[in-house]
Amino acid sequence: MHGVEVARQIWAHALDMKIIFWAQFADETCMRQTFRLIPPEAVYGYLLKSASADQFVHTVRGVLIEEQCILARDMHRAYAQASDRQTGLTDVEYEALVDIALGLTDQAIGASALPVPTRVTSRLHALYSKWG
Fold first, then answer.
1. Distance (Å, rounded) from C-alpha 66 to C-alpha 47?
2. CA distance to 22, 27, 89, 118, 126, per residue, from 129 (Å)
3. What is the CATH number of the domain that holds 18?
4. Digit-coded pLDDT (tens) for 17-63
5. Can you tell me the distance from the alpha carbon of 10 to that of 49, in angstroms, rounded to the nearest whole number?
6. Maximum CA pair distance of the chain?
7. Long-range contacts of 79-82 (CB under 8 A, 24+ apart)
8. What gap in Å lies between CA 63 and CA 41, rounded to an integer?
9. Total structural domains in the chain?
10. Which of the four pLDDT bands, split at 50, 70 and 90, describes residue 3?
């Protein structure tokens, strides 16, 4: 089971559980999946496996003892970039971009994600205009 799914199940039963995500990469897809499931009142940390021993200790102490939310610097940058309204992508735009990168056509994206093809086309046009 993926760590994000484990966290979702834990928080479904124990919202006060403190969780530290220990990730290999500062990946926007992983960041979006993770932040989508984190309850607003949860205490958590997000640390990259490349972190130094000092960063590891800081994150563990901050989350478990001081009850602070701690993000790795690279994840904070990815989160800020994704949250920027002018250059960042909404979840729908991001998913459309992933579908495009996989080589799916407008019709295939519409069949898998949205029931009305015109919505797919308008969302893709918004994505294209946002990124030039």
1. 16
2. 35, 24, 12, 16, 5
3. 3.40.50.2300
4. 999 998 887 766 777 777 778 898 999 998 888 889 999 999 999 99
5. 22
6. 52
7. 79/31, 79/35, 81/28, 82/28, 82/31, 82/32
8. 13
9. 2
10. confident
